[in-house]
Specification:
Number of domains: 2
Structural class: mainly alpha
Order of helices and strands: HHEHEEHHHEEHHHHEEHHHEEH
Helix content: 40-55%
Distance between the termini: 25 Å
Number of helices: 14
Bound molecules: zinc ion
Strand content: 5-15%
Length: 357
Amino acid sequence: MTNLQRLLLEGEYVGTYKYALLISIARWAVENPHWEEGRELDVAALAPHFLELYWPQAKPFAVADRVQEPGLPYGDWEDPELAGVLLQDRGQRQARQAPRILKEILRAYRECGGVLSKLDPGARIALERSVRKTIRDMPLWKLQTLRSSQKPAEVLYHPGRNGYHLRFAPGVAASFAHFAPLVEEIARSAWLRHVLRSNPGLLGAHARVESFLFPDARNGLRLLRAPLLEAQGDRCFYCDGSLRRSMAVDHFLPWARYRRDLGHNFVLAHQRCNSSKSDTLAGLPHLERWVERNQLHGEVLGSRFDDLRIPHDQRLVQRVATSLYELAEAEGADLWLGPGSMAVIQPEWRQILGAVG
Ligand SMILES: [Zn+2]
């Protein structure tokens, strides 16, 4: 679970293949409870699950029984054959080009009237073979690639024969079986959010419900700019560049790792530094500067937070920092130093935070 969480927080998710792969592995693991440690698995065994996951998504999206009208701001593919199919990718150059697998599934879908079990057996075999190739080419190694490095971390599995095989790391297959419902839940909700963000036009209502239920604090932080500017000047907290052009309120301890907005956790940074840091913990020079800032300005900041009705608890935030850096050390995690620059955590974080080893 530690490794999986690391892949979710530190991996890059431009499409939905990785979520499909995680769910497929979990479902497969439940079906194979006594998988022998070290045995190679042909990813062909994952293909039926992968196919079943994408099958319903290959048809044009419709609300209730109303089939979509052309020209709505979703399903805006370059390929007219896919009109109305929800986008699964975002932020990439080829975002409007359909993933090969969706096209092939769509064709099969039409061939058998949308009922997978009615698909001609030969066509099904061909389709699963193609899915197997997609798994090998797309998510299999990318799933384990962290933003900080080009080389896969291989925390869940290692490569096996001819690129189509993998070997699970010790205990991983059993853990996937054990935690299958949790993996499924996490991967599904990440997948849903991904599709919502990729198709904002139509799904605004769903997205609004989600952000109503689980408000994303990142939207309401402009108030913090003034007090933070007073405390740190108009320089980026991380790179010390001028903030005149772009300014973001950054959760020093990442929001994805600690979802409470406590005043002393915020710093001002460039948009670019903020999004490059993303969900990773900041490196030790940054940690040192953050502790210093709170020592020097913590009290003044506290009373400004009071004026703005922003909750704060400096000692609690420091304790959360200790807890997060402790976990990072146990994982041997990389810390973020700057755009494109990471370094493995060093034990000195304890001195910086005044934590007893
Ligand atoms: Zn910066």
